[in-house]
Amino acid sequence: MQNEAGEIFYSKIMLFGEYTIIKGSMGLTIPYAHFNGQLAFPNKDSYTDLAFAQRSNQHLYDFWYYLQSLVNDNSMLSNFNTEQLKEDLDNGLYFESTIPEGYGLGSSGALVAAFFQRYVSHNFADRDNMTPSEIRSLKEQLSQLESWFHGTSSGIDPLICYFKHPLLLKDLDHIEPVGLPRYDKERSDAIFLINSGKPGKTAPLVQHFMTSYDKNDAFRDFTDHQLTPLNNSCINNLINNDKTEFYQSLKELSSLQKEHLSLMVPSSIHPLWEEGIASQEYFLKLCGSGGGGFILGFTRDYESTRKFMDKNGLETIPVYQDLRKTIKT
After folding, report:
1. Cα(131)–Cα(138) distance, rounded to whole angstroms?
2. What angle, rounded to 10 degrees, do the helices at 82-90 and 50-72 form?
3. pLDDT tens for residues 37-56?
4. Model-level pTM greater than 0.90?
5. Upper half-sphere CA count for residue 191 (Cβ side, 13 Å)
């Protein structure tokens, strides 16, 4: 193996809250260990892809220049040890990751969480017992670090990657750990991903949403009075384990996203999206900003849905089957 320089950090999935969280809705995000990454040093005697390690190392040098500029301007929110980072980069440090970029799984969030854990001297060692004010402070510090990758950042992606357990976002400033309920043992309920076949581009889609919200009264009214309430309803029903209401709200949310956020739905997925709504065998929704990457699915019969997707040339990746409480509520 490569010489490890830090702990493994998982990818993330925002189950609910994409786009609407920007305008004050609730959000529900979970860690996803299937894809992960960690800081490492190359090892010539191992399977390490040295060319990849060198490219990653150079990319991280660019990140270091950004961090050092914050230190020089006395604007760094965290006490980031840029001197140690520079020394490690000179020794070949890179980010070993299986998280695909542009697929809505928080690749930069995992990287930022790994950097924060290794290079920031902080008081957040007990992640399970942080106060609300500590969580807000941590989110602000992570947001500043991740902004280099996207121009702006809410800090949510690196926060969930850092915590490694589900988080409920009551809004952007009120975040708390949450438990997810066990699914019905007699039903093969599942949350899954399907690959649209191409990466998405977050920035232009977010800009399109913001412009539509700010300049189109009808779209703003739709977001505030239809999309946001349905999003919040899905979250509350899932947490409260009310499956009947959950799937009803999910069906409506899927229909609204297909109708009003069609630009974010990859064209190759349109027929399957509509088939799910019509058959009610499964429901699809955006995973992150959309436009490509992964699509998130929910079903009450995973095996049947998996076979259907397979016939249509799409592999399903299970996210949760038989959901169990991971954190006490």
Report:
1. 11
2. 160
3. 999 998 765 556 788 899 99
4. no
5. 25
